[in-house]
Design brief:
Helix Hairpins, HSP40/DNAj peptide-binding domain, 10 helices, 15 strands
Length: 376
């Protein structure tokens, strides 16, 4: 995979000053520092990327070379410095003095580089859940079923079949991480032999082959709050993959998909629907039953109600998230015209039309008043 442009990585222009580059690095380095993002495995790679970009662009000679030849100028094994990204971070921010620890304590408390236990954490999982509009409006509880690694019941997550336990990994000397060189840059990564745990199982469990976890079909109850929107994510803490050899579990992120409704359309917390009304009720007035999420409701139709008139039913929409308030239901009337008339019905309608003339049709009269110049 090709590297991104160093200027793009730091979010600066090619004409940026040294102080602007340093300022951009400080912001990006804090944002992507692994200790600031313990649950994001990709943060360390982003942190290394911004550190690498800063190392080149903050040095006038290296920057000039990069501007002329690009990444190829530093692709050889003897890179300009091969700097550790954490050392670069210390150099820019200052390591502080005494027991206080300076900027590191201010930004990250007393933490330093993530230890081997962070590599034991299980991965986060994603689950796509489809719900109805009714579920989203009033809330619901769903039972999810998914296959995922859980703590091995045979060894209780230890990974060992006996009490012999573990021994320190020889490859990484028990650190759980190894450092490899990629050009001038050094990369710290999980040890491939112990999986980042720093320990080797002496007598692996036959149920999980030493991982401390095994895959199983799992059922999880999830509370979906009233008012949730399409595309929202619900975090179910600790319900992701179980960690290696007793490590902490990841989280489960449930993405909500609301199915299209056959009557209602949702806009924020309001609902909209179209309801047919007989032209006799629209003309004479009367009562009309309309649907709501809770059942039917009745609205009064005034005489002479026109097509597409909208009636608002307050507090009949979707509940607001984390609130007892609700949106409104907007009902748009569609005046229905009969399509099959017998001879007597047609005669009656003709008599009716002749009796009212055009003076009783204000919309029609107003339109033709505006459009009369087109009929000359």
């Amino acid at each position: 995979m090709s590297k991104r442009d160093y200027y793009e990585v730091l979010g600066v222009t090619k004409n940026a000053s040294t102080s602007e580059i340093k300022k951009a690095y400080r912001k990006a380095a804090v944002e992507h520092h692994p200790d600031k993002n313990p649950d994001d495995p990709s943060a360390e790679e982003r942190f290394k990327e911004v550190s690498e970009a800063y190392e080149i662009l903050s040095n006038e000679e290296k920057r000039s070379t990069y501007d002329r030849y690009g990444h190829s100028a530093f692709s050889g094994p003897s890179g300009p410095r091969g700097g550790d990204p954490f050392d670069i971070f210390k150099e820019v921010f200052g390591s502080g003095s005494g027991s206080g620890g300076g900027i590191f304590d201010e930004l990250f408390g007393n933490s330093r580089r993530r230890g081997k236990t962070s590599n034991n954490r299980g991965s986060d999982l994603r689950y796509d859940l489809q719900i109805t509009l009714e579920d989203a409006a009033i809330g619901t509880v769903k039972e999810l079923e998914l296959a995922k690694p859980i703590t091995c019941k045979k060894c209780n997550g230890s990974g060992s079949s006996s009490d012999s336990g573990t021994t320190s990994c020889n490859t990484c000397d028990g650190h759980g991480q190894i450092i490899s060189s990629r050009g001038f840059f050094q990369v710290q990564q999980a040890c491939p032999d112990c999986g980042g745990t720093g320990q080797i199982i002496k007598d692996p469990c036959t149920g999980c082959r030493g991982e401390g976890r095994s895959e199983e079909l799992t059922r999880i109850k999830l509370k979906v709050p009233a008012g949730i929107a399409h595309g929202s994510r619900i975090r179910s803490s600790g319900n992701g993959e179980a960690g290696l050899r007793g490590g902490p579990s990841g989280d489960l992120y449930v993405v909500i998909h609301i199915r299209e409704h056959d009557i209602f359309e949702r806009e924020d917390n309001d609902l909209y629907c179209e309801v047919p009304v007989p032209f006799t009720i629209a003309a004479l007035g009367g009562e009309l039953e309309v649907p709501t999420l809770e059942g039917k409701a009745s609205i009064k139709i005034p005489p002479g109600t026109q097509n597409s008139t909208v009636f608002r039913l307050r507090n009949r929409g979707v509940q607001f998230l984390n609130s007892s308030q609700r949106g409104d239901l907007h009902v748009q009337l569609q005046v229905e015209i009969p399509i099959k008339l017998n001879k007597d019905q047609k005669e009656l309608l003709n008599q009716f039309a002749n009796s009212i003339g055009t003076k009783n049709s204000p919309i029609r009269e107003g339109f033709f008043e505006k459009a009369k110049r087109f009929f000359k």
